[in-house]
Design goal:
Chain lengths: 176, 807
């Protein structure tokens, strides 16, 4: 299956997504289990660990781009799904102003902003899919400029340009 | 916006945003010229950029954690799986979760490890596989293998495995924490090899040997975890196809190149992983430099770069009383050669079995030249050891024997490096052989899954199919064909199909004599094996003994010529010929052969080797035949103690020499020692091969004898029954050759006499004596036993139950 992904087969990617998604979720949950409760988790930790685990399952991966692409997309999806659920709960319950999770307050604003960003990204993808990928990798997966460049097989300068252009484009879209 | 315009926007923006804001307008004027759309778009984006950082406020960490925390690990604690209650989480990871569980039914407690697995396979596939493999894995009963107790799936469909719980430390950490010496590390490694070899004999390839899968308990006993589990969890390539997720949950740094390429894992892949483990145990390092710890880089290194030799870099292990530099010196030379041979990228150039690897380490420990560094003669020796062993373990399975058959050719190829042409021809030949065998094996694997047949049935069927095919194939390549005949013959021999084996050895010999210019070594190999097959048949076919004798003589004569010096078939031919002579009661001749074999074996392998130990055993038999019980006992003791220091001994070896010694001891009234030896050799595993069953039955006869002598008649009766059960599956020729039925009859007779059932005893003993007389007359010691027992029966006291006689 992963070989097909490398060949750019979109349907293979779709089949792979749940796998990565699931893995990310599991890794995060193991961080929250008793042994790890004192630790916090960064999106980049999550993605790197998921890569190590999933890539173990198939070393026919020729490079990391496909994985990071998928992982970044999964991270985005995980966060957006969560935000959407919490929003729905809020509307349903009407009362919940903040969610108490792990003793940290999450505000509704976080969720709304995330959902808006997701909508804007969907539109950006229509215009320039690489920009969308860069945002997913940088923002949702926490990859550095260099890592993103390596994953996408482009120069760091190109990633920098894309990153700034995407930011500007998204801001303009979201504030209009 | 059209694509062309967007491209321009991207291009201009990329330049413009890097320029100080004040200069941007001038830049845009110059760059965009009259293109108002372009200029407008870029300018708008540049304006947005100043505030755009607001878009990407850092994601709150708690959001990440919460979003992802839907299935907390360890959620199964407290739940019940079958009769086990889950107590704590041991580990969790990509492969799933492992828990410790306990069973407490009031009477006894049992701790187990339960592994809930995640797999890329569908649930259906998993269940099918589990069903196919479960009984096989559960039959792997070995002191150094954590046993699979059960497998199943939860209500929600998650498959799980219940395994023996091992309370121990990772083997590498264990070695370092105790600052074990290199020799101690090698010995513990040999124990691990023994377990892997045992599994290989039962057709199970581990596929995931690594330090983390081997725990050493407080008593210093290593145990291998997860045997064969990798196969359950990963996709297997169909023949000729490469698997996409072949590695499953493998840790890539221990996986062999062929596994990384997605090819089928074989016993020789385990040899590679053992090489990696050995490297780690001895140096604390890995043999490759990885660019990063990403699996991709790791695989690249394993596939493309040459491993550094163990002594090539400073070591990172702690050894009591030795500086790292001293450790490094110890490793340089022989150990370097051994480890690198296990780590060869091409399976064909590696040790061809775990046994070979372990043997070589044994040689190093005994200060003998190691195979990995030796010349042609050593190569032949290892090739032979492997074959000989396959002949002596009756259920050594097809997989092993087939794959094993090819190696010698390639090793010889390595040797012939200066003769390029020969090397290429040989390599070509080996490739053809490998191809043929691999295909047979993968078909066997497939059939096995499809029909759920037992391993033995499949082994024979596959072998028959291979044999049939071979008859009509490879006509234009007689050398390859002859080699395959030898391999198939050996495998038949291992499976107890002696007549088929004879046929194939004979075909090989025919080809080597007539169809091409075979070397003397090859000719002698075929003659030796053919002789061996005849010898096996001699108990059921009297003319076979003559054929065997003339062949053995010819091998001995040929290989005794100075030009053939150093050929390992010479001592083996002496040894086997001596066995034949002994069987015929030609004791003086037998002795002269065995005393020639012994020094040659010692020269090849050292004292503490199976072959040398076997010579002492034969010397013991000879002494016993000549009535010299003191000398017999001395030789048996030597055989037994040498054997006990061979890491690679088999059950068959131990039972055989133990039986001889125990028999001796009981004969001279040393009941206490006999008893303690019988007890120390704890009940044999259920997985004895049919051949081992024959030997075990003999040992059990000794046990029954001792019980009867001590008046423990109930135990004696049970032991006789066990002896009968032990040979139930054994081949007739082996049973006859070792007179097992007669020995059982004698013990039964002895027991009946002790119980006073005289007429029944007399009947059995008379029949046995008559049977023995019909056979070759040199078994008079059995007839003599019958006579001695018959003497004990009071005359005129036919059927009445009398008082059991004493003594």
């Amino acid at each position: 299956m992963l070989v097909n992904v490398r060949a750019g087969d979109e349907s293979a990617l779709n089949r792979l997504l749940p796998l990565v998604y699931d893995e990310l979720r599991k890794i995060a949950s193991s961080y929250l289990s008793q042994e790890h409760s004192s630790q916090t988790i960064q999106t980049s930790d999550l993605v790197h660990e998921a890569y190590l685990r999933l890539a173990e399952a198939d070393v026919t991966w020729q490079n990391r781009a496909h994985f990071f692409g998928i992982a970044a997309r999964s991270m985005r999806q995980i966060l957006v799904d969560y935000a959407r659920r919490r929003n729905a709960e809020k509307r349903g319950g009407g009362m919940t102003r903040v969610s108490l999770t792990e003793s940290v307050l999450l505000v509704d604003e976080d969720f709304s902003r995330l959902l808006m960003l997701d909508d804007a990204l969907k539109r950006l993808e229509q215009v320039d899919s690489r920009l969308c990928k860069v945002v997913e990798m940088r923002y949702f997966s926490g990859l550095t400029i260099e890592e993103t460049a390596e994953a996408l097989s482009v120069s760091a300068r190109t990633v920098e340009n894309d990153w700034n252009l995407a930011k500007a484009w998204l801001f303009r879209t979201m504030s209009s | 916006m059209n694509q062309a315009l967007w491209h321009r926007v991207r291009e201009v923006f990329g330049e413009a945003y890097r320029i100080p804001a004040a200069n941007r307008a001038a830049f845009l004027d110059k760059t965009c010229g009259a293109d108002a759309d372009l200029r407008g778009e870029v300018a708008s984006l540049l304006a947005a950029l100043d505030q755009a950082d607001a878009v990407f406020q850092p994601l709150p960490q708690s959001l990440v954690s919460s979003a992802a925390s839907e299935i907390p690990a360890g959620r199964r604690i407290g739940s019940q799986i079958g009769s086990y209650r889950i107590v704590r989480l041991i580990a969790s990871g990509g492969m799933g979760e492992v828990y410790e569980a306990a069973r407490d039914d009031g009477k006894f407690q049992r701790r187990v490890a339960i592994k809930f697995v995640r797999s890329f396979l569908s649930q259906e596939q998993m269940i099918r596989r589990f069903d196919a493999e479960r009984s096989l894995l559960a039959s792997l009963q070995h002191p150094n293998i954590a046993q699979l107790i059960d497998a199943g799936s939860t209500d929600e469909g998650t498959p799980y495995l219940i395994m023996e719980f091992v309370d121990g430390e990772r083997i590498d950490e264990y070695c370092d924490a105790r600052q074990l010496s290199i020799a101690e590390r090698l010995r513990i490694f040999q124990v691990v090899c023994g377990a892997v070899r045992f599994a290989h004999q039962h057709l199970v390839v581990h596929r995931d040997i690594k330090a983390g899968n081997i725990l050493v308990d407080a008593g210093g006993i290593p145990k291998l975890l997860d045997f064969g589990i990798a196969k359950l969890l990963t996709e297997e390539a169909a023949p000729g196809e490469r698997t996409l997720t072949g590695l499953g949950f493998m840790t890539p740094d221990y996986a062999s190149p062929e596994q990384l390429r997605g090819e089928q894992a074989t016993t020789i892949s385990d040899v590679y992983s053992l090489g990696m483990l050995l490297y780690k145990l001895l140096t604390g390092r890995r043999p490759y430099d990885f660019r990063s710890s990403h699996p991709f880089d790791i695989s690249q290194a394993i596939l493309d770069s040459e491993p550094t030799r163990p002594s090539g870099k400073p070591v990172a292990v702690t050894v009591a009383g030795a500086t790292p530099e001293k450790v490094r010196k110890t490793l340089s030379g022989d150990i370097d050669a051994i480890v690198l041979m296990a780590l060869r990228k091409e399976p064909e150039y590696r040790y061809q079995s775990v046994q070979d690897l372990s043997d070589d380490i044994g040689r190093f420990l005994a200060n003998r030249p190691v195979f990995a560094r030796k010349g042609e003669a050593r190569h032949r020796a290892a090739k032979f050891i492997r074959r000989h062993r396959s002949a002596s373990i009756a259920t050594l399975l097809v997989c092993l024997a087939l794959i094993g058959g090819v190696s010698g050719v390639l090793w010889q190829t390595k040797q012939a490096e200066h003769e390029r042409d020969i090397a290429q021809i040989e390599a070509q030949k080996a490739k053809r052989i490998n191809g043929f065998l691999r295909q047979m094996i993968s078909e066997s694997d497939k059939n096995w899954y499809n029909h759920g047949q037992g391993p033995d049935a499949t082994a024979i069927q596959i072998l028959d199919a291979a044999a049939d095919r071979l008859e009509n194939e490879l006509q234009e390549e007689p050398a390859v064909k002859a080699e395959l005949h030898m391999t198939i013959g050996n495998t038949y021999l291992a499976l107890g199909k002696v007549e088929q084996a004879r046929h194939h050895f004979s075909s090989a010999l025919q080809l080597r004599r007539t169809a091409y210019a075979a070397s003397t070594h090859e000719l002698m190999e075929s003659e030796y094996y053919l002789a061996g097959a005849y010898e096996h048949l001699s108990s059921v076919d009297t003319s076979a003994a003559d054929s065997a004798e003339s062949l053995f003589k010819r091998v001995i004569d040929t290989l005794s010529m100075p030009s053939q010096r150093g050929d390992i078939y010479l001592p083996y031919a002496y040894q086997d010929y001596s066995g034949l002579l002994l069987q015929e009661g030609r004791i003086a001749e037998a002795e002269s052969c065995i005393v020639r074999a012994l020094p040659l074996f010692v020269d090849f392998f050292g004292e503490k080797h199976i072959a040398s130990a076997a010579c002492y055993n034969v010397l013991g038999h000879i002494a016993e035949f000549s009535g010299d019980c003191v000398r017999a006992e001395k030789n048996y003791r030597r055989a037994t103690s040498n054997l006990m220091s061979c890491a690679d001994r088999t059950d068959a070896n131990v039972i055989e020499s133990m039986e001889a010694l125990v028999h001796c001891l009981i004969s001279r009234g040393a009941y206490e020692e006999a008893d303690s030896l019988l007890r120390r050799y704890s009940a044999p595993s259920a997985s004895l091969t049919p051949y081992e069953g024959v030997l075990l039955a003999r040992l059990l006869c000794c046990g029954a004898w001792l019980h009867t002598i001590r008046g423990e008649l109930g135990d004696a009766e049970k032991t006789v029954a066990l002896a009968k059960a032990a040979i139930r599956k054994s081949p007739e020729n082996e049973i006859r050759k070792l007179n097992v039925r007669e020995l059982i009859d004698i013990e039964e007779g002895r027991l009946l006499i002790a119980r006073g059932w005289y007429s029944h005893a007399r009947e059995i003993l008379l029949i046995t004596r008559t049977n023995m007389k019909k056979r070759l007359d040199h078994f008079d010691h059995i007839a003599a036993s019958c006579n001695a027992l018959l003497e004990l029966i009071p005359r005129g006291n036919g059927g009445a139950r009398g008082t059991p006689p004493h003594g």
